[in-house]
Amino acid sequence: MINNDVLRSVRYMLDLSDALVIETVQRVDAQFALSVDQLRSYLSRVDEPGHVECPDAVLVRFLDGLILHLRGPSPNAAARPLAKRISNNMVLKKLRVAFELQDADMHQILEDAGFPVSKPELSALFRKPEHRNYRPCGDQLLRNFLKGLTLRVRPE
């Protein structure tokens, strides 16, 4: 899925201001420079003028910062190195950690979005890529997960 869509979806879901998104990114890496203009160019739609593709570095820092924002720092864990590339599986894992979701929660979220998955399908998404039962997360599954999570966080 396109990084811009993930960033835009999570920002809408949590109703985050530009300043809070930048603060969330810099919570992980204070040296990382992200301006309001850059953020707005990442949040704009593809057909809008000034649209720029959101790099993996920004999305990784945002999702890691979101974990710190929602759960706080881990008291006994050392800082993990930041991933260079991000996949849909990694986005799913980071959102699961940030929102403290269990398997039942994940199933309910996907079912609420009209995209039910079986237990083996879901567990295959969280395996290591070299595992024989690993399954890459498709754009449609991630899009529906974000939709279902939004319905859960912002019931309107």
Helix-residue proportion: 55-70%
Strand-pairing-aware structural class: mainly alpha
User: What's the main sheet like?
Assistant: none
Average pLDDT? 91
Q: What does this protein look like?
A:
It is a single chain. The chain has 156 residues and is mainly alpha-helical. The chain folds into 2 domains: 3-71; 88-153. Helices cover 58% and strands 0% of the residues. It has 8 helices and no strands. The protein has helices spanning 3-14, 18-28, 36-43, 56-71, 88-98, 103-112, 119-125, 139-153. The chain starts with a helix and ends with a helix. The mean pLDDT is 91.
Topology:
Blueprint: H1 3-14, H2 18-28, H3 36-43, H4 56-71, H5 88-98, H6 103-112, H7 119-125, H8 139-153
Quick synopsis:
The chain has 156 residues and is an all-alpha fold.
Keywords:
mainly alpha, 156 residues, 2 domains, 8 helices
